[in-house]
Structures are given as structure tokens and as C-alpha cells.
Design a protein that fits this description.
This protein has 295 residues and is α+β, with helices and mostly antiparallel strands. The protein has helices spanning 4-8, 19-28, 35-44, 96-106, 122-127, 165-176, 181-187, 225-237, 255-261, and strands at 9-13, 46-53, 64-75, 79-87, 112-117, 131-141, 155-159, 192-198, 201-211, 214-222, 244-249, 265-274, 285-288. It binds coenzyme A. Coenzyme A (COA) is lined by residues 29, 85-87, 92-98, 117-118, 120-121, 123-124, 127.
């Protein structure tokens, strides 16, 4: 029979009514998500909350208190990302995080699951069979200076047009090895976008959207570092003084460049995978993430 905290804590599917409490948990961790960011995440995926009886649990109309969250987003039929795994500090170390992970993973059976782990989350994920892939660096700030992008001959950065959606889907699929159609369909209407062309052929793109304390440049998908810099320079150059954030994988080789522009690295997470890594096209790369949760 369950005893102690086990007996007091129950899990159930997350609903929009939980988002105020969920936002409280992320704010407590000093995570920057706004309630709108949580709403967007839930509209694109699903989650579980852990809740326990509040101090007035003897009363007939007592309220339960949300003390933990975990979410996931599906890509096609064989992949998913997992994130927003949070347990309230007072309830940590008592198995709640593991129960939330078990619940979400139970719904992802048969899929490769990717996540970006904080130092606190990594031990739990390792125990659940996740393997490290490589670090992702979080860069952000408002006081940056961006030189004009150096474009190579026949290269252009132009606004995203309504006919570009199929190209975006194709580039995102090739860069990640995952079907990102639904993600892009959800993101693009609320984002600004630019496309990188070479000899008039689209070869990359970058979105710019509201998130957290300001704006995020991501995803940035390009054939090489030069192309990624041209795309990112467009957004930073036209938004100097605004708070901007980029999450860049180590292999993007953008971290030193962003530091030098005045967007310092303020944190690091470890990309981890459970299951076979989705097969990406090596000629197209993700240079900045959509968000840590969405990959
Ligand atoms: C990460 C987090 C969700 C874990 O939740 P939790 O309820 O404290 O975790 P649990 O008590 O279920 O512990 C899970 C397992 O990890 C182990 N573990 C937890 N922290 C550990 C640590 N620092 N070192 C080694 N093992 C650790 C526990 O021993 C436990 O193992 P077991 O199930 O085999 O006994 C929680 O610490 C948290 O919310 N941290 C802040 C937000 C965050 O960083 N989230 C992760 C985002 S990727």
C-alpha cells in the first residue's frame, strides 16, 4: 500500500485550468515562460500534473495543490520531445519527478524521445535510459551590436512568404530527422520569418517570436555557419536593444560569435535521447532551437 507522500500525491492529465499553477512552478524556478508560452506549449502537446491535498484537505470543498508538471510533443509517428519537468522545491527528492516521467514516457512508447536536461534533471533522465548527445548553450541579452551580415555572392535574406511553408517543412524535417509540420503550423502564424536563398533557391530560414522575457530567434535552420549567421544577424540587427535569446547546440559553433556580439552565454543544458537518434540530413543543420522544450 502507498504511504506518506506517495499516497498524498496523485497524477492526472494537464488541462488549461492548470496553467496558472504550472506558471507559478516555472516562475519559482526563475524560468522565463509567460502564461502565453505555457498555453502555446499545451496547445501543441500534452502533459501531466502531480497534485497533493492542500492544508485544508479535511474540508469538503478543499483544493488540491499542483506540485509538479511534465509535458511532451509528438513529431510524426516515431519521435517526441519532452520538457517542462518541474517539481516544487518542497516536494523534490520524494519520487514525484520519476512518477511524472513514467506517466509521460508511458504515452510515448515506441518513439524516440529527445529532451534538454538541466543539471538537476540529468540524473533522473539517465536512470530512465536517456543518453547525452551534446551541450546546448543559452545566450541572451539586450545590449548587443551586430555588424551587417556578410553575404556571399548570390545569397539573399528575404522575408518569409505564404508560399514558403512547404520549404520550411522540408528543411525542418531534414535538419532534425523528425516531422515538424505541426510545430511549424503552430509557430509560423505568431512569428516573423526570413528565408536564406542561394541562387534564388531557399536553403535556410529563421523565425523570430515572442517568448519569455523578450524574443527568441529560433528555429534557425541553415546549410552552414555562414548562412546561420546571415539569418541571425538579420533579426539581431533589426532588433538592437530588445531582449533576445538563442539556444545554440555546441556543434553550431555560434557560441563564441554570440558572446562577442554581446549576447553572453547564461546557461547550459545537455541534449539527451532515449531510443535511436532520428536520422537527419547532414547538409542541413539546426543552429538555434525553437525552445529547449520543443527542441
Ligand atoms: C529534476 C526534478 C524534476 C526531479 O524531480 P524530483 O521529484 O526531485 O525527482 P525524484 O525524487 O523523482 O528523483 C528521481 C530520481 O533521480 C534521482 N536523483 C534526483 N536528483 C539527483 C541528484 N542530484 N543526483 C543523483 N540522483 C538524483 C533520485 O535518486 C531518483 O532516483 P530513484 O527514482 O531511482 O530513486 C526536480 O529536481 C526539479 O524540478 N528541478 C528543477 C527544475 C528542473 O531543472 N527540471 C528539469 C528540467 S530538464
Amino acid at each position: 500500500m502507498a504511504t506518506g507522500i506517495e499516497a498524498m500525491v496523485t497524477l492526472r492529465r494537464m488541462t488549461v485550468e492548470d496553467l496558472t499553477a504550472a506558471h507559478g512552478l516555472s516562475s519559482e524556478q526563475k524560468w522565463p515562460h509567460r502564461i502565453e508560452d505555457w498555453e502555446m506549449l499545451l496547445s501543441m502537446g500534452f502533459g501531466y500534473v502531480a497534485e497533493r491535498d492542500g492544508p485544508d484537505h479535511q474540508k469538503p470543498d478543499h483544493q488540491k495543490e499542483v506540485i509538479g508538471t511534465a509535458m511532451a510533443w509528438l513529431y510524426g509517428t516515431d519521435a517526441a520531445t519532452l520538457g517542462m519537468v518541474i517539481v516544487s522545491p518542497q516536494a523534490q527528492g520524494m519520487g514525484v519527478g520519476r512518477r511524472l516521467m513514467d506517466a509521460v514516457l508511458g504515452d510515448l512508447d515506441g518513439r524516440t524521445v529527445l529532451l534538454n536536461a538541466t543539471d538537476e534533471g540529468a540524473p533522473l533522465y539517465r536512470k530512465l535510459g536517456f543518453m547525452p548527445v551534446g551541450p546546448v548553450f543559452q545566450h541572451q541579452g539586450a545590449a548587443f551590436a551586430v555588424p551587417m551580415a556578410e553575404l556571399i555572392p548570390d545569397e539573399r535574406v528575404r522575408p518569409l512568404g505564404s508560399k514558403d511553408m512547404a520549404t520550411l517543412r522540408d528543411l525542418a524535417q531534414r535538419a532534425t530527422g523528425m516531422n515538424r509540420d505541426a510545430l511549424l503550423d503552430a509557430l509560423v502564424p505568431g512569428a516573423q520569418g526570413v528565408v536564406l536563398t542561394r541562387r534564388n533557391e531557399p536553403v535556410g530560414f529563421a523565425l523570430f517570436r515572442r517568448f519569455g522575457r523578450g524574443y527568441v530567434v529560433g528555429p534557425t535552420i541553415a546549410p552552414d555557419t555562414g548562412g546561420a549567421r546571415a539569418l541571425i544577424s538579420h533579426w539581431l540587427g533589426s532588433n538592437a536593444g530588445m531582449f533576445c535569446r538563442l539556444d545554440v547546440p555546441e556543434e553550431s559553433e555560434l557560441s563564441t560569435w554570440l558572446d562577442a556580439l554581446g549576447l553572453p552565454c547564461v546557461g547550459r543544458v545537455m541534449r539527451m535521447v532515449r531510443g535511436p537518434m532520428p536520422k537527419a540530413d547532414p547538409t542541413v543543420t539546426t543552429f538555434s532551437l525553437t525552445t529547449q522544450a520543443l527542441g
